[in-house]
């Protein structure tokens, strides 16, 4: 079975309901749309906002790793939850110093990847089927697909398991977590317990990720090595029904990333302009910008975002919990990952007791009982025994 047959099977498994992946013929119209973006300097960073309560802001804030210190980033940007675009990290700069370029700058070029037999023969995730099982294809087949496909919204390698074998694990040696994001408190729990948090990305032009908020109130960073990406960001106060375009997408329209950027987002902005005096659109804002190779985007927790690959791209992204967003992450994790949260709390008492006490204080303030707290387990067991005893007495 050749690459075409394997990729057609992957597409059928991923979206069995979609019969014609190129129905809108976007491979024809997309280049002109992209070229118009790149031709206009005003489109590189564009904000659309109505501010009744405060002076308008423009995001992302442009920073340079050649002069940006770690303390400055944590205090003045991450703690304030400002989206940022940081230049020159893969080039070898961090915290205002030159520490050496990433190997990925050379090794992740498309032509270089094609010469790496171990990586090309390895299977990477490019989607999920209806049962939630991963769809994996050889990178060699995906590269052929990337070069020749005419799909409106192509499949996208978005793989979190690239530390599972020797070939893929080599990718971990090609980059380093930037010092600005190195404090990841989820790293205190075992890899097998923590949710997926890092992904290697290989995306054909027109592929992308739909509008979403990152899970468990985590922050995220995304470094692009090859190509161009288009981003849009909505601040946390913008309602989900608005940034999802509720009522603006017909049943016969797709809502993949490319459709969102080319069709749905303009409708959202038009609707916001028309209803700017209504309460639900108060302080509406959306920020659009282009990320180029060598740039790193920082997305604070709570900011909804969508990303579209303007060209073929290669990059890496990670989600993390730091000291700055710990409180929000704790409240999400204790209910979303109940077993992991208890293990995490126990480890926090060993490594960062002040954070563990903060977590306990939040639980008490919210009257939240942890499911895997031994005290709570004993209470449930005692109650079960009491009910069973009362049932016997009743007989």
Task: Report on the architecture of this protein.
37% of the residues lie in helices and 21% in strands. The protein is built from 15 helices and 16 strands. 35% of the residues are buried. With 395 residues, the chain is α+β, with helices and mostly antiparallel strands. The strands form four sheets. A seven-stranded mixed β-sheet has the order 2-3-14-11-16-9-8, with no helix packed on it. Strands 1-13-12-15-10 form a five-stranded antiparallel β-sheet. It has a two-stranded antiparallel ribbon with strand order 4-5.
Bin the strand percentage.
Answer: 15-25%
Helix amount: 25-40%
How does the overall form come out from the CA principal axes?
globular
Cα separation of the termini: 68 Å
The main pleated sheet reads as:
7 strands, mixed
Helical segment count: 15
Which residues form runs of ≥5 with pLDDT under 50?
none
Radius of gyration, whole Å: 23 Å
Number of strands: 16
Query: Mean of the pLDDT scores?
Result: 93
Strand order of the largest sheet: 2-3-14-11-16-9-8
Class by SSE composition: alpha+beta
């Amino acid at each position: 079975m050749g690459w075409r047959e394997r990729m057609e099977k992957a597409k059928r498994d991923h979206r069995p309901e979609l019969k014609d992946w190129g129905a809108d013929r976007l491979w024809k119209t997309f280049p002109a749309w992209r070229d118009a973006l790149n031709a206009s300097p005003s489109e590189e960073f564009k904000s659309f906002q109505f501010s009744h309560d405060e002076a308008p802001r423009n995001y992302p804030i442009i920073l340079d790793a050649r002069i940006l210190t770690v303390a400055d980033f944590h205090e003045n940007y991450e703690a304030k939850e400002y989206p940022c675009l940081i230049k020159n990290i893969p080039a070898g700069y961090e915290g205002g110093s030159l520490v050496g370029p990433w190997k990925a700058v050379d090794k992740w070029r498309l032509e270089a990847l094609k010469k790496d037999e171990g990586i090309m023969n390895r299977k990477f995730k490019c989607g999920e089927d209806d049962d939630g099982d991963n769809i994996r294809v050889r990178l060699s087949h995906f590269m052929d697909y990337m070069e020749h496909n005419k799909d409106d919204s192509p499949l996208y390698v978005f793989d979190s398991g690239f530390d599972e074998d020797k070939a893929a694990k080599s990718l971990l040696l090609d980059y380093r977590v930037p010092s600005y994001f190195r404090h990841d408190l989820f790293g205190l729990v075992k890899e097998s317990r923590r949710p997926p948090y890092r992904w290697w990305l290989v995306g054909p032009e027109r592929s992308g990720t739909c509008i979403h908020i990152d899970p468990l109130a985590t922050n995220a960073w995304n470094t692009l090595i090859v190509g161009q990406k288009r981003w849009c960001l909505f601040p946390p106060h913008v309602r989900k029904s608005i940034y999802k375009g509720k009522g603006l997408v017909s049943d016969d329209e797709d809502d993949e990333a490319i459709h969102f950027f080319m069709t749905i987002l303009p409708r959202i902005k038009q609707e916001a302009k028309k209803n700017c005096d209504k309460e639900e659109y108060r302080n509406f804002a959306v920020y659009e910008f282009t990320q180029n190779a060598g740039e790193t985007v920082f997305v604070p927790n709570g900011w909804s975002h969508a990303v579209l690959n303007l060209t073929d791209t290669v990059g890496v992204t990670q989600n993390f919990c730091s000291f700055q967003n710990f409180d929000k992450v704790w409240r999400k994790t204790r209910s979303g990952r109940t077993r992991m949260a208890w293990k995490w709390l126990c480890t926090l008492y060993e490594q960062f007791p002040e954070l563990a006490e903060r977590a306990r204080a939040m639980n008490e303030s919210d009257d939240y009982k942890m499911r895997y707290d031994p005290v709570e387990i004993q209470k449930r067991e005692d109650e079960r025994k009491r009910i069973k005893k009362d049932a016997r007495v009743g007989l």
